Amino acid sequence: MSLASPTKSSIWKGKEKAMDEDYADLRPVITYRHLHSHNLGVRDPLRVVGLCDSDAFYAACERVRLNLSEDAPLVVQQWESLIAVSYPARKYGISRMDKIKDAKKKCPDLVSVHVATYKEGEKEPGYWDDIDTRTHKVSLDLYRRESAKIMNVFKEMLPNGEIEKASIDEAFIDLTQPVRDTILERYPYLANIPPNAPQGADTPLPSPPLELDWADKVHLIPILPSDDGDDSPKDESEFPPTWHDVALCIAAEFMTKMRKQVLDTLGYSTSAGLARNKALAKLSASVRKPNGQSILRNDAIPNYLRPMAFQKIRFLGGKLGKAFADEYDVSSVGDILTVSLDEMQSKFGEESLWVYELVRGIDRSEVKEKTAYFKSMLASKNLPKPITKSSEGPQWIRVLAAELTLRLNEARETMPSLWPKTIALHLRKGYEASRSKQAPFPFVKEVTVDIVASAGNKLWKEMTGNAKDVNVGALQLSFSNLGRGEVGQKNIDGFFQQSTKRSREDAEDDQPSDTIQGRASSSSPQSPSSFVCSRCKKRIELPIHVVEIRGHDAEGLAETVAALRAEHDDFHFAQDLANAPETDQTGPAPKPSKPSSTGRDTKRRKKAGEPSKGIARYFNKAG
Ligand code: TTP
Ligand code: CA
Ligand code: CA
């Protein structure tokens, strides 16, 4: 750290002061009003959020499919690379970084499964012997299906909890409401405000129980830091349980039950984290893996976060985190705590309030089911060798059509009225901007590969025209504007719920379907590595290194882009919250020395729709 630099030293607050102030909201007063309110949302002092992540997920899916023992050392391969490694295989020192050849050297008994692929002429993905990137296309359908089963277990077991799928193998679960109901059941004396309560509903709750029986197989992240080399439990008696700890303890019971159900009925072991918000739940979930469950009590937040590399925090891992690290020469959360809010905002814009809060263990993003997730479906293929003849297109379009057909029909099993309004074809050279063309997709009762392929072929023909020579490095076929409607209804417009506000993306579908090169990328509804945000109207693109990490093929991208979209939504949400005027007194009291965390200062408020100049750029187009 270059603390000595005179220009930089002026931005550091006194270390001492930082320690005292930074985590000031760990033991908020909880009143009867808090306990009895149902709509405090992210300001709820009793808020408890879990994140559940499946262990070595793709490997587990293949183990279950093949009915192998849990001890089998197994890897999932995509071409020559590994995309998932079971925990028994990790014992041999095998990691995702290895090539299959090296992994087999490390463990001669290794079971290796190549991810399923679509093959020309086959309607369904399968496990073939002659896998070749020139003729096959990766299918993640099995993992998507298993993922949906896990989500269904959560939904069934927790009808009044909010569940948000965060990626193919993880979900955030807001347990606040079910936990609140349980608290009232277990501590019935809290159900009514005592007639002699001095401040009525605003009277603090009586003291919580002196000891909590933390459920089995739960790891409590320690409140006090371990001395060098000494991990033995410390005396934490100066931190008696709070009502929030009671809430966490009950949340842990719910989580244990759900994870057990997933393991018993589906065969998947999972790891979970529980804390007061999403960012902290996500961090805690990776503390004990596999098959672990960690709880981060509020009192444990400071010593857990301070020494941590701040780039481990959700959203701070990418370009934004790197920009902070470079700007302030910081690496740990403790380092970054010494950067004042004014300094941060002057360099990174008003919204960096949100980073300022994250490193202080505050995350105001909501757990919300993302329905936009199902608004589009896409299948894509990066070709190992570009297509150079127009006549070579249809064979790939058929492969993509088979995948889309399968996925649409599968989705229609649970949502029979689901129908896409539009079909689009994108053609790209490498990762350059794509050319695309779209057309309305007419309603038919039964969708078949032939119907989808012929719609795709028509677009291909229109795009490549009579040209004999073409140069196409990647193809993508997509359905967009999927909506619900009455089965058998002919009028496509009738399929869409009135409640969905028309986004710019929807509106663009009314424009002529032909798109021209260059503009195509920014006006098309989907592209494999990006999406257009309906709020800030920006095309949000995955960084190219992520595109590469997700495999040699574009398949994994759909998931990653969905996650990116969810994160981007959260980003807007966090911004909204930061800009919203405070409506109650349950949040942390604003400190006079810096702008309120709820942004009362209207001068600081941005106009809706105004493009963000600050940290938003770190979530945008690479470059
Ligand atoms: P992860 O949850 O990151 O990893 P994992 O489930 O394999 O292992 P862990 O127990 O450590 O959580 O990713 C979930 C699945 O996503 C993984 O099984 C395979 C896929 N994936 C890729 O295809 N490419 C990648 O680079 C990563 C990180 C994951
Ligand atoms: Ca996982
Ligand atoms: Ca994961």
UniProtKB/TrEMBL annotation:
Residues 521-530 have a biased composition (Low complexity). GO terms for biological process: DNA repair; error-free translesion synthesis; error-prone translesion synthesis; mitotic sister chromatid cohesion; response to radiation. The keyword Zinc applies. Its main location: nucleus. GO terms for cellular component: nucleus; replication fork; site of double-strand break. InterPro entries: DNA/RNA_pol_sf, DNA_pol_Y-fam_lit_finger_sf, DNA_pol_Y-fam_little_finger, DNA_polymerase_eta, Rev_trsase/Diguanyl_cyclase, UBZ3, UmuC. This is DNA polymerase eta. It comes from Coniophora puteana (strain RWD-64-598) (Brown rot fungus).
